[in-house]
Amino acid sequence: MSSDAHAANSHEMPFWQKYIFSQDHKIIGIQYGITALFFLLFGFFLMLLMRWQLAFPGQELPLIGKWFGEANMPGGVMLPEFYNQLGAMHGTIMVFLGVVPLAVGAFGNYVVPLQIGAPDMAFPKLNMASYWAFFLGGVVMLASFFVPGGAANSGWTSYPPLANIATAGQTWWLVGMVLLITSSLLGSVNTITTIFQLRAPGLSFFRLPFFVWAQLVTGFLLLLAFPPLEAAGVMQLMDRIFHTSFFMPSGLMVSGQPLAISGGGSVLLWQHLFWFLAHPEVYVLILPAMGIVTEIIVNNTRKPLNGYRLMVYSLIFLGFMSFIVWAHHMFLTGMGTAISAFFQATTMIISIPSVVILSYLFLTLWGGSIRYNTPMLFSLAFLPMFGIGGLTGLPLGLSASDIPLHDTYYVIAHFHYIVAPGTIFALFAGIYFWFPKATGRKMNEFLGNLHFWPSLVCMNVIFMPMFIQGLVGVSRRLYDGGASYDFAQGVLHLNKLSTYGAWGLAIAQIPFIINFFGSIFKGEKVTSRNPWEATTLEWEAPNIPGHGNFDHELKVYRGPYEYSVPGAAKDFSPQASEKI
Amino acid sequence: MSTGEIPYIVKPRADTGLYNAKLGIWLFLASEVMLFGALFSSYILLRVGATDWPRGASILSVPLGALNTTFLITSSLTIILSWIALRMKDLPKFKIYMGVTILLALAFLGIKAYEYSLKFQHHLFPSKSTFMAVYFTLTGLHACHIIGGVIVNSYLWGPGSRMWKTDPERFTNRIEIAGLYWHFVDLVWLFLFPVLYLL
Amino acid sequence: MDATKVEEIKKEIRGYYLIFAGLVSLSLVTVGIYYLHLPLGFAVFCALLIAALQVFLAAGYFMHLISEKMIILYGVLALTACFAIAELALPSIEHHNPITGTIHHQEKHHEPVSETETHHVP
User: Fold this and answer.
1) According to a count of CB atoms within 10 Å of the terminal CB, is the N or C end of chain A lower?
2) How far does the CA of residue C39 sit from the closest CA of chain B (Å)?
3) How confident is the model at residue A114 (pLDDT cuts 50, 70, 90)?
C-alpha cells in the first residue's frame, strides 16, 4: 500500500526527515509560514530603507548607512541604482515570497486538509517539492543582491527593453521566478486535487467552508495564469543570454550605439504575458484573505453566513473574470478605443463580485453577538480597508481617469490598501485564529491589541497621503520622491509623514513577534480542541494534530455555518456532530 | 477515511470517477496548455507585427520534421499498448512496448539535435531573427518536455517497475498517467510541426 | 482473465491502431496540403482544422477523454480552452487596434525603424 507515507511518518523518523524534509502538510504549512514571515519582514526592511530616501533624499542614513557598501550607499547616501533595486525587490519579495506563500502555501496547506476532513494533501511528496522549490527560489532572489550590479532594478514588472539590458541581477530574478512559478504550479495541482478528491463523507461542495472555496478558486488562478509568465521569463532569459529579440524592437539605441540584435520584437508582448499572470495574481493575493476573514467573522458573530451560495458564485465568477481584464494595466500603451472599451467593461464588471462578497460580510455582522478578540479585530478592519482599496481602483479601471493616475502614487496607495491593511491583516487574523490548533496554546490578547491598533492607524498614515500625491501627479519609482519636480513641491512633506508612519508600523510589529514566539512556549494552554466554539471540521482534530490528523472517523451532517440554530443545545452546531 | 491512509490513490472516487493522480495530471496538462499557448500567442503577435517573415519550409527541413512527427505518433501508440499489456498482466510485453516508446523518443531527439547542428553550422542562431528565436525556443522547450518524459518512462521501465510485484494496480495507473503526459507532448508537436515547418 | 475481458481489450487495441492510422494520415494530409502552396490565410485555416481533428482523436481516444464520466475534467479543459483563446486572440486584436488621432498614427505593423526617426522625447 502507500507504505512510504505511512511508515515514513511513524515514530522512528530521524529529525531531518520529520521536520526538514517532511511530507506532512502541517509541517510543510508551518515551514511555508515561518519562511514567508521572514521574507515579509525582509521586504519590510527594504521598504524602510526606501522610505528614508523618500523622506530625506540625498541625506546620509545614520549608523547603518555605511553597511550597504560603496556600490549602493557611498558615505551612507543612497544611490538611485540601489533605490531601484530596493523597489523592484520589495515588490517581488512581498508578493511572491511573502504574501502568496503565506496565504496559499502556509494557510492553504495547513488548514485545507483539516477543514475537509482529510488525512493529508493528495500528493505529500509533491507538497514537499513545492516547498523546497519555493525555498530555493527565495535563496536565488536574496543572492541576487550580491552579484555585480546588484539585484533586479527594473521594477517588479521587469518591462523590456530596460529589463533586457539591465544588470546581471535581472537574470537571477528570472531564474528565481522560474523556481517560484514551479513551486506554485505544483502546489495548485495538489490543492485542487485534494479538495475534489479527499473530502470527508457527507461533505458536498456546498457544505464546504468559504475558506476552502477561496483556496480552490485561487488554485485554479495559479494553475492557469502562471504559465504565461513562465513562458515570458524563458523568453526574456533567451533575450538576455542568447541575444534573441523577443521583446526588443528594431532600431533600438543604447547610449548612442545601435544594439547588435536582430530586432523585430515587441515590448508589448512582455506586457501582455506579464499582466496575463499578474492580474489573476492580485486575486490570488486577496481571495485567501477573504476566506480567512469570512471564517473568523462568522465564528465571532455566532450567526450563519449571509448569502453563502451567492458568495460562492461570486468567487467563481471573480476567478473567471480575472483572466480577461489584464490590459487595464496597459491603457497607456497606445491602445485603440475598441480594445480599451472591452477591457474597461470587463474591469467594471469584475468589481461586482467583490462588492457582493464584502456586502455579505458586512450584512453578516448585523444582529450578531460580536466577540472582539484579536482575530476578529483584524478581520473587522479588513472590511473598510479593503473597501477603500477596492473603491479607489475604479478610477484606475476606466481609461480616461487612468490616464493621469497611471504610474503615480495613487496606484501605489490603491494596491497597498488592498494588500497591506487588507490581505496582511487577514493573514495576521488567521495566525491568531488557528494558533491554538497548531500549538495547543492561545496568543496573548493584550499583545494582540498592542499589535492591532497602532498597525491600523499607521497603515492609514502611510498610505492615505499617497492618494493626494498621486492626484497631484507624483510618479512612482522616483528615487527622490518627486523633489526635482515643481508641481510636486506642495506635497513633498507627505513623504515624511508616510515615513514616520512606516516607523510606527515597524514598532507595532514588535508585540506580534514577541507574542508569536513567546506564546509557542509560554502561551496560555487551551483546554479544548475547539476553543473558539466553531463549527468547521478542523476543530474536530486534536490540538497539534498527529499524522493522519483525526483520531476518529468523520461524517458531515450539515453546512459549515450552523450557528444559533433554533432548538439546538448550544449556539453552534458542528458540521460533524450527528445531533444538532 | 479521515484517519490513516490517503484514499483514492488506486481506486477511483465515486462522485468524481477519478483516482487522485489522474486528476492531478490533467490539471498539470491544463497548465501546460497555457504555457505552450503563451508561446504560440507570442509567435502570432511577433509574426503579425513583422514586416517580413520567412515560410518555415525555406529554412527548416520538412522531410525531417515529418519523420519526427511519425516517430512521435508511433510512440503514442506504443505507450498505450504498454499500458494495455499491464492490464493483461503481461510484464514482458509492457517492457517491450515501453522500450520502443523510449527508443522512438530518443530517435526524435537525435533528429532534433541533427537539425539544430545544421542550423548552427550555417550560423542560424536564435539571435539571427525572430523566426529563429521562436523556432529554437518553441522546439527547445518541447524537447525539454520530451527529455523529461524519457526520464520518467525510463524510470518506470527500470527501477520503477519493481512496484509491479507489490502493487500492480497502482503501477498500471502510473503507466496510464505517464501515457497521458506523453500523448500531450505528442499533441504539442502536432501543432508545432505545421506552424513552424509548413506555414 | 476471462474471455470477454480479453475480447474487449482486443477490440480496444484495434481501436487504438485505427486512431494511430488516422493521426498519421492527417499528418500526411497536412504535409500534402503544404505542397499545394495555398495562400497563407487559407493554409493557416486548414492547418488549424487538421490539428483540431488530431487533438480530438488523440485526446478523445488515446487519452480516453470520451469515456471519462467526469464533468470536472471537461470543466477544467473548457475553462483552459477559454483562457487560452483569450490569451491567443486578445494581444493580436490589441495590436490591430492602435490609438488614432495622434502623431503616432502610423500603423503599428510597419515597425519602428521609421518610428524611431519620427519619435521625439517630450
Assistant:
1) N
2) 10
3) very high
DSSP string, A44-100: HHHHHHHHHHHHSTT---TTTGGGG-TTT-GGG---HHHHHHHHHHHHHIIIIIIIH
In the block, residue with C-alpha cell 484579536: A374
Q: Give me the residues paired with residue C98 across strands.
A: A335
For residue A278, list chain B residues with Cβ-Cβ distance below 8 A: none
3-state secondary structure of A417: helix
C-alpha cell at A390: 477596492
pLDDT in tens, C44-97: 888 889 998 998 899 888 888 877 766 767 777 887 888 888 878 887 887 887
Q: With beta carbons less than 8 A apart as the criterion, state whether A396 and A414 touch.
A: yes
Closest alpha carbon to B127 in A233, A260, A168: A260
What pLDDT sits at residue A11? 58
Which residues of B fall within a CB distance of 8 Å from A200? Answer: 1-2
Show residues of chain A in contact with C102, CB under 8 Å: 334
Residues from chain C that touch B190, judged by Cβ atoms under 8 A, are 23, 27, 51, 54-55, 58
C111–B81 CB contact, under 8 Å: no
Rounded Cα gap, residues B180 and B174, in angstroms:
10
Measured distance CA(A84)–CA(A97) in Å, rounded? 19
CA dihedral (A554, A560, A566, A571) in degrees, to 10, reads 80
Inter-chain CB proximity C51 and B190 less than 8 Å: yes
Chain A, chain C: beta-carbon pairs less than 8 Å apart: 59
Over residues B133-185, the pLDDT tens digits come to 999 999 999 999 999 999 999 999 999 999 999 999 999 999 999 999 999 99
Q: Which residues in chain A are closer than 8 Å to C95, comparing Cβ atoms?
A: 268
B46 and A185 within 8 Å at the Cβ level: the answer is no
A195 and chain B in contact, CB less than 8 A: no
Nearest to A143 by CA among A112, A173, A180, A120: A173
The beta-carbon neighbor of C94 closest among A220, A228, A335 is A335
Which of A188, A194, A276, A321 is the best mutation test for C, with the most CBs of C within 10 A?
A276
B37 with C87: Cβ contact below 8 A: yes
In the 8-state DSSP scheme, what is residue A537? G
A202 Cβ contact list (under 8 Å, min separation 6): A555, A556, A557
Record: contact A123-B1, CB cut-off 8 A: no
Whole-angstrom CA distances from A366 to A303, A362, A408, B53, B166 are 9, 7, 38, 64, 59
- Judging contacts by C-beta atoms under 8 Å, the chain B residues touching residue C13 are 81, 84
| Helix-helix angle A445-472:A374-397, to 10 degrees | 10
The secondary structure element, H or E, covering residue A525 is strand A524-525
CA distances from residue B131 to A233, B38, B47, B138 in whole angstroms, order as listed = 18, 16, 8, 11
Contact A577, A154 (CB under 8 A): no
